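Posted in: Protein Modeling Q&A

I'm a second-year student putting together a small comparison for a lab meeting, and my supervisor asked me to include a predicted structure for Putative allantoin transport. I've never done this before, so apologies if this is the wrong subforum. The sequence is pasted below exactly as I got it from our records. If anyone can share the structure token output, I'd also love a short note on what stands out.
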Amino acid sequence: MIAFFLTWLFQFPSAWLHPSKAGPLFVVKSLLSPTAYIVTMIWTVVKFNGVDLQLGKKTVSGSVLAWSFMKAINTVVSGVVPPMVNIADLARYANKPSDAWPLVAGLFISKPLVIIIGLLTTAAGLKEFGVANWNLWDLYTLILENYWSPSTRTLVFLGSFIQAFATIVTNVSSNAIPIGCDLAGLFPNYFTIIRGQILCNLLIWPVVPWLLVNSAKNFITFLGSYLCFITPILACMIVDYWLIRKGNIHIPSLYRPEPGSPYFYHRGFNPRAYAAWAIGVVLVISGIAGSITPGSISQTAVNIYNMGFILSLSAGALSYYIFCRLFPVDIYPSTAAAAEEEVAADHSIPSSWEYMVPTEGFFVDGKDDDVMPEYVREKIGGLRGDILQGVEVEGREHDVVIGGEKDVLKS
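Accepted answer (user: helix_wrangler)
Welcome! Here is the predicted structure, written out as tokens:
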């Protein structure tokens, strides 16, 4: 607990760092952390004259090997899914859409790279000391006990310092910023992003996280259980964006927490998403008991839990898609729904996504004048009389002449 308190003491000031100012911190971490890991790996392999790859205590085959492999995949993915869900909290500060791609690439490159480095470093330690230390600090302790020289102490100090710094920065990006953004979005009258980050740092103590990481087994169990709850959220996000809305977002409606907004759903809650999330969780949650207390559940339930990512993602995605087909979501605000009815009646106002692109989602019939930014208002004024070609209405392409109160279709 003393070690945790000291870490928290250094961590707490970062709560006052706004995400828009955190970029340089992430750059420094991305440069120092890989360097520290690679240098540690090279030093141990060279110093200990190679590696001992017999890291396993027993040999397995058949279905046991297959399920163990599936469990390993589940464990690795558990560290990737949370950043995938929270990536928008950082990507929102990008200057252009392509700026987000390095984040995605980094997620899938860094994990295998760190695993390989960790395996080789641990294997080198096993060859030298006869014990596999999967925790880096345990390996550093053994190195200091057996190689007490100025160069070794310097290496261990720098490696430990960089690891501590990297952990603090990871907490900022993966814990503090997501909670700060969520609280600021849910309760804007009470929370800013920084206030949310401060609350996150204060709520750490009741969670007693030092009990979660006091052993590698407990930590892996925690990661697996966390995956069960967060994977269905990712599934709903993927289906909603790519399949239901086909990559289209009506920006003005994001700032309208009121009935009629396509993102307000039922009093601000989306019952389809909650139902799909529950299905994805219930399918694998029994396996958590088996991880905490081995033998308390059947082997079938354990196997289901070991492939929790695949099952939760598939079940959550399929359930949400079915619910959205049975109970369709609005992809336009209520003003657009009325416009669609008008299109069906006399083809006077098209409301396709293509039609709204030049006006950035705002309607040119006066319904959005109360919230329309001035630059959009000027843009629409310049568009009046222009012709949009190839706008699809009821399965047919038309040319649209942007006019006054209503727009005119030209077949």
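A couple of things worth pointing out for your meeting: DSSP finds 18 helices and three strands in the chain. The chain has a mean pLDDT of 79.
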